[in-house]
Design goal:
The chain is α/β, with parallel strands linked by helices. The protein is built from five helices and four strands; from the N terminus they run βαβαβαβαα. A four-stranded parallel sheet has the order 2-1-3-4.
Amino acid sequence: MQDAPLKVLFLCTGNSARSIMAEALLNYYGQGRFEAFSAGSNPVGEINPFVVETLNDVRISTAGLRSKSWNEFATARAPHLDVVITVCGNAAKEQCPIWYSTPVNLHWGFADPAAVKGPEIAKRYETRRVYSDIEYQIRKFVALPIENLTPQQLEAELRAIAPK
């Protein structure tokens, strides 16, 4: 049984789009049962403007969101992580830092809206499409009975609901 919020870190390379959306969505839908963070192996230093627009449009707060390095979570002072989820293929292939906890590690792949070239309408469309994919995944996550799961059971459940 878990008393404290489940601490989840979403990783991506640039930490400007997918991991940021996952962090915001899990904090929003998690209603205190989860504490989400995001980071990148090579953060770009800013949040994609179409991500900010999308989150604002659905009234999910962007306060406190920022593009940051995963090294912030690889120190003794970092939050104790329960789950680390890579949301892009590049981050999934990279050697992660040593965490000062033993989190469940898994990969949920999503398309990269920040990689879209072309007009703003195409970038906006892809960001909203990926947002919907991530939202669907996060809703499945928060529906899990995390308070009653062992770490091994949690890992099995998270793998079972992973995007196909």
